[in-house]
């Protein structure tokens, strides 16, 4: 990174799951750098969904480095996820034909419930490591028994991890959704399910979804439940495979709360 920016820049790791992100500072100049970001980042920047893309450089080894504005700001807290601005920005993303066209051109095909369930089953031995947790088995059985109800053919760009720490509120009060490494073309219920089940009280779903721009119906609600459970299991698997057992336990507890609160059964 120093070879790209010069010796006057201070570069520090920015954390994250890939270990390929950095902060860079030279006096008042500050950048967020990332190695091998998707070309999708340029469209996200143009749409105002992520902080502004400043430049892109390709290295001799083929790696691509992107630089974005490094903004003063903070992640949203769980209470702020109820705010209409969150619903509005997610709606903008889901209704953007530009984002969908770009992701399709990058070779992303629509993700189906069948593929998600197959992937979970292929890695079920990871979930079996927490075999005494009945909610794991209840969730898998629910996904199997309700697979046909998750069918839907109007796909959009989904972020796939709408956790509150991926929502950035800048010091200038601009809201962004960051960390797009796992974006997919999929049913919008994938994003909606995890967000609403995690942060929005059921009695407020109607108001929140009105801000998003949709009137909930039984089919949408069934799909949201299906995806909320499947994403919960996927995140548990992901943390377990990385040896992040504390984080996996947090996800398991959230799944437990979801199963109890919403009376999810296997039938």
From TrEMBL:
Aminoglycoside phosphotransferase domain mapped to chain residues: 14-215
PANTHER family: CELL CYCLE REGULATOR CCRZ, PHOSPHOTRANSFERASE YTMP-RELATED
Organism of derivation: Halobacillus seohaensis
Domain of life: Bacteria
InterPro entries (UniProt xref): Aminoglycoside_PTrfase (IPR002575), CcrZ_PhaseVar_Mediator (IPR052077), Kinase-like_dom_sf (IPR011009)
Protein name: Phosphotransferase
Gene3D superfamilies found in the cross-reference section: 3.90.1200.10
One Pfam family, short name: APH
């Amino acid at each position: 990174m120093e070879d790209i920016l010069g010796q006057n820049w201070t570069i520090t790791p920015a954390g994250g799951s890939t270990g390929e992100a950095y902060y860079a500072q030279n006096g008042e100049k500050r950048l967020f750098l990332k190695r091998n970001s998707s070309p999708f980042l340029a469209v996200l920047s143009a749409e105002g969904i992520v902080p502004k893309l400043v430049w892109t450089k390709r290295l001799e080894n083929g790696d691509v480095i992107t630089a974005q504005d490094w903004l003063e700001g903070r992640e949203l807290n769980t209470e702020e996820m109820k705010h209409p601005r969150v619903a509005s920005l997610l709606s903008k993303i889901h209704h953007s034909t530009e984002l969908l066209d770009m992701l399709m051109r990058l070779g992303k095909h629509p993700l189906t419930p069948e593929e998600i369930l197959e992937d979970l089953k292929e890695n079920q031995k990871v979930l079996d490591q927490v075999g005494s947790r009945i909610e794991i088995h209840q969730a898998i059985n629910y996904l199997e028994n309700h697979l046909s109800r998750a069918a839907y053919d109007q796909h959009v760009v989904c972020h796939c991890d709408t956790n509150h720490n991926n929502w950035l509120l800048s010091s200038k009060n601009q809201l962004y959704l960051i960390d797009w490494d796992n974006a997919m073309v999929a049913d919008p219920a994938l994003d909606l399910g995890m967000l609403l089940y995690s942060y929005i009280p059921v009695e407020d779903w109607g108001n929140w979804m009105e801000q998003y721009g949709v009137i909930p119906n039984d089919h949408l609600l069934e799909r949201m439940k299906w995806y909320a459970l499947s994403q919960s299991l996927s995140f548990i698997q992901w943390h377990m495979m990385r040896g992040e057992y504390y984080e996996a336990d947090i996800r398991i507890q959230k799944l437990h709360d979801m199963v109890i609160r919403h009376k999810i059964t296997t039938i």
